[in-house]
Amino acid sequence: MARPCPTGHHDKHDVYSDSCPCRALLDLLSNKWSALIIGLLEQRGAVRFSELQAQLPGVGAKMLTQTLRRLEAASLVDRTVYAEVPPRVEYTLTDLGISVSEPLGLLRTWVEDNIDRVEALNRDWNT
Fold first, then answer.
1. What's the CATH fold of domain 21-119?
2. CA-CA distance, 15 to 56, in Å (whole number)?
3. In this structure, what DSSP letter does residue 114 have?
4. Are 36 and 56 in contact, with CB atoms under 8 Å apart?
5. InterPro entries, alphabetically (predicted)?
6. Is pTM, for the whole model, over 0.70?
7. Tens of pLDDT, residues 65-96
8. Inter-CA distances, 42 with 20, 46, 64, 101, Å
9. What is the rounded CA–CA span in Å between residue 72 and residue 91?
10. HEC string of 23-62?
11. Where do the domains of the chain lie?
């Protein structure tokens, strides 16, 4: 499954290798909050922190902050601070973030389409 590194920074990329830096990005993208934040930013464009939190019931401010920081550090999300009183901060997807929004969107759709089936199979398995 290994792929050559297009930048030459590594010999190869192999998400199955425990030493591959791909694992950290896979971990970030497979996090439910990351997948949901990316989906919301894809749908809405520039969004403020409070809007994101309102659209993601169950996420605490600390978790949302940590996830946004990780997405920003991975160059998937841009954070823009406007010099206003009070300060206004908005989050948007970068080009890289837009490029991952499609596969994550397919995953979110698959989950919505199949959750009833999975739950039914789990009930059958547990009886």
1. Arc Repressor Mutant, subunit A (1.10.10)
2. 29
3. H
4. yes
5. HTH_HxlR, WH-like_DNA-bd_sf, WH_DNA-bd_sf
6. yes
7. 999 999 999 999 999 999 988 889 999 999 99
8. 28, 9, 17, 7
9. 9
10. HHHHHHHCCHHHHHHHHHHHHHCCEEHHHHHHHCCCCCHH
11. 21-119
